[in-house]
Design a protein that fits this description.
Number of helices of chain A: 12
Oligomer: homodimer
Strand order of the largest sheet of chain A: 2-1-3-4-5-11
Order of helices and strands of chain A: HHHHEHEHEHEEHEHEHEHEEHEE
Number of strands of chain A: 12
Strand content of chain A: 5-15%
Low-confidence stretches of chain A: none
Helix content of chain A: 40-55%
Largest interface: A-B, 65 and 63 residues
Chain lengths: 339, 339
DNA sequence: CTGTTAGCGCTTTCAG
DNA sequence: CTGAAAGCGCTAACAG
């Protein structure tokens, strides 16, 4: 039950089974070069001794550690947990395990953590670059010959593997939907153009409104850390031409806005159109249920993991960019009918 | 810029610096046994060659890998991301890194993943046991001499290290608050008593109502995966003595309930008292803002990580149980005044 | 099909 | 203060 637990190694197993260490090693990796009877004997010995494979030792000899690094800038956010779900789904199939580190949106910390991951010998990296990440980081990683795919945000417009939602398309869909529902004064609420994901949203917003010859300057920056921050919204509402619809940075912002409007006696879906982004589970059951841009973080995670695994198998100098395209989930906060 | 990148080892560094590998190793671990000039020479060599410490190799010799395993049963949930935030905060200080795996509430998968973590040589384990985890799992882990702390749920009432919110106390606070606000017919909405965290909530609920000589059988099980599931709520509302207040399993359920009530023309905070649990960020800005039991997942994570690090340093056969005590965050959905 | 022989990159005695 | 030598547990040729 509780002996001194003297590390049972592959060698002990081999001795127990009366074979050489090399043969035992072959059994371990289910090589076809071993006879059935030998294999059985070795497996029995492993079971009996309670053998645990030591990957650390194996890594030393081989190339891969069977680990990848996951560098996120806000592990506390629900959106990232969905992303991890998608990544996990793929890597678990490949018997790979993820080491999770948090850059907390701080480039120095991000660098420290990436170095730490390198020391652990990760086979690849999935990274959502912190705001302010220098483009040089990617080439530094590339020089180490460690595959790296960026998710959700990218540091360079052109180089490096990247997987993210098609934010521009999603925002464009939302704008068109609002226009179809007769909204003319559409505002964008939330965030600042501090990274690619925010810029792409704003670009889609402006471009689509411009194409429809509508106002495209109703952009209200807010602090995403503080959901009670509505920026210049109060001023705008009091202005001569207040917005009649809102596209929000994400569902969290949208929910918060709806709460705000409701407390002012305004009904989202009737008095204002409101559209969020991300389609969080709770958005289906909020009051009113929220129309939202589906950004499919799980799908982004899956694609990123698949791309990384592929890069690990066959290194390639080319850059792949995958935009996961979204749809609009129409509910009552804009365009949907009551159930 | 991009040479063949021939793995630079401690040996290359030593050669470059004109010392032996052993000396270089001492420098690496900032031993005081090395002269300043030698140290400087070695460090210069490391920089020049772009040396990367290989922990895998070091582990082989030493005992610790500098990794812990994090076994969660639903990495997609926002609640767990808060937990990870707390854990990360502590381990990052100790230069330890977390390998994250998802049991997806499946005991077999959980076991497979734990085995995988063992192979990677994790120094310890933080685990939120999946529903249906046998008590034997803990003794199996204990036999491997790998420290393990359970979080949020525990498999055994008495043995094993555990850190979690004081669910019973929290629920009790909520009940008392509702009673103070004149509610008499209090229902518990959500979940089933399938693990300790749910049982503790229900125990706190029943016990406190009993003490106040009020009905304590208004318990409405629901499927937490489906926020639109309100179980027998409709029947209950149509009964002769419908509830006038709800304590919900968590904020997600509470938000969903509030949406449901609002769509029926009922105003939470006026027509019904509603209390959630977890104090998610979005609960502060919902409509109406939600009164909630603070379960402090970040604090739970911090405590769990601290306990684990301590166990890794000094193994101990005793069981520590830490209940992180909570408070009530009073907002308008019950007892709070409009801002 | 199985065993022998070298290491992978590092830490750790033990001698200088 | 520094170096030589042994070995952590495993895999990868290469011989039989």
């Amino acid at each position: 039950m509780n002996g001194p637990q003297k590390a049972v190694t592959l060698n002990s197993v081999a001795v127990e089974a009366g074979v050489s260490r090399a043969t035992a090693s072959l059994v371990l990796r289910s090589s076809p070069l071993v006879s059935v009877s030998t294999r059985e004997r070795v497996i029995a010995a492993m079971d009996k001794l309670g053998y645990i494979y030591n990957r650390g030792a194996a890594n030393l000899r081989g190339q891969k550690t069977g680990t990848i690094g996951l560098v996120l800038c806000d592990i506390g956010s629900p959106f990232y947990s969905q992303l991890m779900l998608g990544i996990d789904e793929i890597i678990v199939e490949a018997s790979i395990v993820a080491i999770l580190v948090n850059s907390a949106e701080n480039p120095e910390r991000q660098l420290r953590q990436i170095r730490r991951l390198r020391e652990h010998g990760v086979d690849g990296l999935i990274i959502c670059p912190a705001v302010g990440t220098p483009e040089a980081l990617l080439s530094e990683i590339a020089n180490l010959r460690i595959p790296c795919v960026q998710v959700l945000r990218h540091v360079s417009q052109t180089s490096g593997d990247y997987v993210g939602p098609d934010y521009a398309e999603g925002t464009s869909l939302a704008v068109k939907h609002l226009i179809q529902h007769g909204r003319q004064n559409i505002a964008f609420l939330g965030g600042r153009a501090i990274h690619s994901a925010a810029r792409e949203r704003l670009d889609g917003f402006r471009k689509t409104l411009k194409r429809h010859k509508l106002r495209h300057d109703l952009i209200i920056p807010t602090n995403l850390e503080n959901l009670a921050d509505f920026g210049t919204l109060p001023d705008l509402m009091a202005s001569s031409s207040p917005p009649d619809a809102f596209i929000c940075y994400n569902d969290m912002v949208a929910q918060s806005l709806m709460g705000h409007l409701l407390s002012m006696g305004k009904m989202p879906g009737r008095d204002f159109g409101v559209i969020g982004a991300d389609n969080l589970p709770q958005s289906a059951t909020s009051f009113p249920p929220l129309t939202t841009i589906i950004t499919d973080p799980v799908g982004v995670g899956r694609n990123a993991a698949r791309l990384l695994l592929d890069r690990i198998e066959n290194a390639s100098p080319s850059s792949t960019r995958i935009l996961v395209s979204g749809q609009l989930m129409v509910r009552q906060s804009c365009g949907g009918h009551a159930p």
